[in-house]
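Help wanted!
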Amino acid sequence: MSEFLAALDLVLRVDVIVTVVCAALFGLFIGAIPGLTATMATALLVPVTFFMDAVTAIGAIVTATAMAIFAGDIPGALLRIPGTPASAAYTEEAYRMGSRGELGKALGVNLLCSALGGMVGVLILAFFASKLARFSLQFSSYEYFWLAVVGLSSAVLVSRGNPVKGGVSLLLGLLLSTVGIDAVMGYPRFTFGSVGLSGGISILPTLIGVFAIAELLRKMPEARNAPPPRPPAVGRLFAGVLPELWRYKLTAAASSVGGTLIGALPGAGADIAAWISYAVSKRFSRTPEKFGTGHPEGIVAASSANNAAISGAYVPALVFGIPGDTITAIIIGVLLMKGITPGPMVFVTDSAMVNAIFMVFFFANVLLIPLGFLAIRGARYLLRVPSGVLYPLILMFCIVGAYATNNATLDIWIMLAVGVLAYVMEENDFPVAPLILAVVLGPVVEENFMKSIIKADGELLMFFERPMAAVLGGIAIAVWGGMSLRGLWRAVRGTGDAVPGPPASDDVSG
Amino acid sequence: MRVNDAVSGALLAVLGLGVLYQVQGYPSLPRQPYGPATFPTIIAVMLLCAAATLIVRGLRARGGPWIAWRGTMSLPQAALPMAYVPAGIAAYVWLTPVLGFPIVAPVLIFAPVAYLNRRPVVAVAVAAVASAIIWFAFSRMLMVPLPLGILESVVYG
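Answered by r_m:
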């Protein structure tokens, strides 16, 4: 109980609440603009959170992402353009409801299910995280090494398209993470005499480069000729929403739980959760033929799943320090900047903070209902902001944001270089999510690998000697085996990169 | 910009070999073969394997050009707005220490907004307001030392 009160004390502060509300508005804004993803909202927010304490910073990020994932539904229903990839699964459904005059109902279902999914996700997170943490306290460097490898490999596995290209992205990220003074002997690597580089490549400019600069390079040319869209009026919100929710209560519950579990898998994020839940609810629906014609059941399933997935992704992030998606990769980066190493020890040493994070999480999902309501009402005006105004402002914000953490112009150059790299990679179907996960996890993998191999004196079998390490190592090898088989199968069949399923998106969590 | 897999594979191979060359002189732990070079070597070797796969794939699927522009707009149309991103960043880094943020930022916002929207009056207003907000938020609230450049003598002189 005292822990609960201590956590409450960390959350119920004016500065925390004001920051969270501001972050919520920011997240709604970014999420509602088509093409700007939840991950981008997070990346742009991080420079500002650098100046806050841990709970406020995490609160701001958590709220902004939850809002952005919901807000992505708004342009989907109004204009048939999903605001973020996580909304793509049910854009058609919501838009068709809208053209039948049920726009208010579609968005109302979206909003309530998003909040519901998020809350269920937090409850599951809070319940299981501490139990898992207690269990993982026994982990040694072998287990951590394998865990990080499993995390990274799954990021490649779920990035649709060619596994070789996913692997390359991963390796490039790992390579970036080795720049700077090495942890074992303090020897400078790949610094080319630069003092700035000896501290390593900062995560922050890398994030901004990958998620904002690359996006600007892609979108800037289109901004010149794009007239701002004219969205229709929403009408009565929430009319007929509650009976609809009651009818599909089982779908909502199952999708929330399912979404959380999918989110907790390393590499799989909100958009995958939405696609899977949509497909599963169609499979088990009593009226599967109605799917795709403007049927609320699909919206209930997918919009509760994508918000639940955001919460789920925090399980591996907080418990093991292994990010489940790009957003939690950013969160881990933020925590590391604050001098907090995520992992089971955080639950012991900083349990008040962990509980405070859960509370902020819950609070953010409650806040989603009134603020989401306002966002739906304001969306017509919001969507009229021309992208030609928005993109140059985002660029300036990126520059100042990259500079702000270390007050170093080197970081601005890093942001640009990584941004151009990410742009070229995505143009050629190299997914970028593995790169970001690798940049964040690279030092963890290397440190635990070096510790283990020095302990084992080069005896590779030692990596499998402890039972848990053997299980995790087995999973890692199975993942690699699966990927190689998939590659081989494709080579034999002679097919290209075409994979059935959702359209490829590299932004796992966006 | 679409690059044939063989080209990206070749570039990655060069990167992998470069890494292997760089780590040659790195020290290792006493009485152990491991050290700062171990991890980069593993990455570089894996990178070389991936590069070889890409080169083979690229050569097998060879049909089009090595490098081609791909986009909804033609390259001449897209080039200017795209080039603005690196150009604007470079201009910011080089010019702010001399001229100061309050002069450089509004210009760097005005130019693309005016070009993309074809409405200079709106662009002036957006540039002024946005620069002021960013200046206030970062320089005053977050205490980031955004450079004043020549304005330093005006403000503190």
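OP: Thanks! One thing I noticed: Chain A has a mean pLDDT of 83.
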